[in-house]
């Protein structure tokens, strides 16, 4: 039995920093950071969950190539259980070139590749997990729409809690909305929440998510923390101002992993939000996705050193 089953994108990131301006064609620009790391909304979330001590399974797709082998090796090294990993013979392993500026903020050049060719929703066994997390909507063609809705509905029928994390895309959000009536935790970033809801104010975004059926609405606000609401209350979770980001890659996935951890251990919403925010801020302290989330103990020490402010709205 898995505590968490993550379904969605698994990628390889090429990380380049510091890049504050794209060079003109033919120009050369020296950088201070260059590396390769595993990425992807679902696979990064899965690695973080496993490092926190949760029994974590993953359903994803990679290419039959060296980058796919690297990704599988890294997942195994963190103890992620590879439940349904497709090795695509036609498409290369998906990936992103991540350009990191001097503030740790990122821009992306992205190739979906094999990452969106994951197993059909009907084949995902929700009877062998406590929580189902979908990572990468609305860039998951087979999961965005009625088939993803049916998967979340089936999970609910089996007593499995559900969540989703989104990825920036200009279209497809009407399909993601279909998940909301069967979602326990909706966790888009601010810009993604705007595309999902049509509202600019985080309060309105959260209200929309709740009215559409989500039990808990989370709007991730980057360095400003997160707006969190359920039927009874709304508040902001704000990280310490002392924290200076090195690289924000994977911070959102780390936040989601921390939030699901709290849900699974029946923590109250405030404790869960503080822990998730600590996971997200700690993830900014190293280059690459889950690099800084080494263990539950490290997150708890980080939270003790840099307390999270909870501001009631």
UniProtKB/TrEMBL annotation:
Which GO-annotated molecular functions does the record name?
kinase activity
Keywords tagged on the record: Kinase, Transferase
Taking every annotated instance into account, which residue ranges of this chain make up the domain Carbohydrate kinase PfkB? 1-291
The question of whether Membrane is a record keyword is answered with no
Q: Which SUPFAM superfamilies match?
A: Ribokinase-like
At the top level of its lineage, which domain of life is listed? Bacteria
Q: What is this protein called?
A: Carbohydrate kinase family protein
**Annotated Pfam families:** PfkB
One Gene Ontology BP term is:
phosphate-containing compound metabolic process
Please give an example of a GO cellular component term from this record.
cytosol
Q: Which InterPro entries match?
A: PfkB_dom, Ribo/fructo_kinase, Ribokinase-like
Q: Which CDD domains match?
A: KdgK
């Amino acid at each position: 039995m898995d505590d968490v089953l993550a379904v969605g994108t698994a990628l390889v990131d090429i990380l380049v920093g510091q890049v504050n301006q794209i060079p003109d064609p033919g120009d050369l620009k020296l950088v201070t950071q260059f590396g390769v790391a595993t990425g992807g909304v679902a696979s990064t979330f899965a690695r973080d969950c496993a490092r926190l001590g949760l029994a974590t399974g993953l359903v994803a797709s990679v290419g039959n190539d060296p980058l796919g082998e690297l990704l599988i090796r890294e997942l195994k090294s963190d103890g992620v259980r590879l439940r349904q990993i497709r090795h695509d013979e036609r498409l290369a392993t998906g990936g992103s070139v991540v350009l990191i500026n001097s503030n740790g903020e990122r821009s992306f050049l992205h190739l979906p590749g094999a990452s969106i060719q994951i197993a059909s929703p009907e084949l995902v066994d929700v009877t062998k997990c406590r929580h189902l997390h979908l990572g990468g909507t609305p860039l998951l063609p087979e999961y965005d729409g009625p088939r993803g809705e049916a998967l979340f509905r089936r999970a609910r029928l089996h007593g499995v809690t559900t969540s989703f994390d989104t990825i920036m895309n200009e279209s497809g959000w009407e399909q993601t909305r279909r998940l909301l009536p069967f979602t326990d935790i909706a966790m888009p970033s601010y810009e993604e929440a705007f595309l999902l809801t049509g509202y600019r104010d985080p309060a309105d975004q959260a209200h929309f998510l709740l009215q559409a059926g989500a039990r808990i609405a989370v709007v991730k606000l980057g360095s400003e923390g997160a707006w969190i609401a359920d039927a009874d209350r709304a508040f902001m979770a704000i990280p310490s101002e002392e924290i200076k980001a090195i690289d924000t890659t994977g911070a959102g996935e780390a936040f989601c992993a921390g939030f699901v951890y709290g849900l699974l251990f029946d923590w109250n919403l405030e404790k869960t939000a503080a822990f998730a925010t600590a996971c997200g801020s700690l993830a900014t302290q190293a280059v690459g996705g889950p690099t800084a989330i080494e263990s539950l103990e490290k997150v708890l020490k980080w939270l003790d050193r840099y307390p999270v402010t909870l501001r009631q709205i």
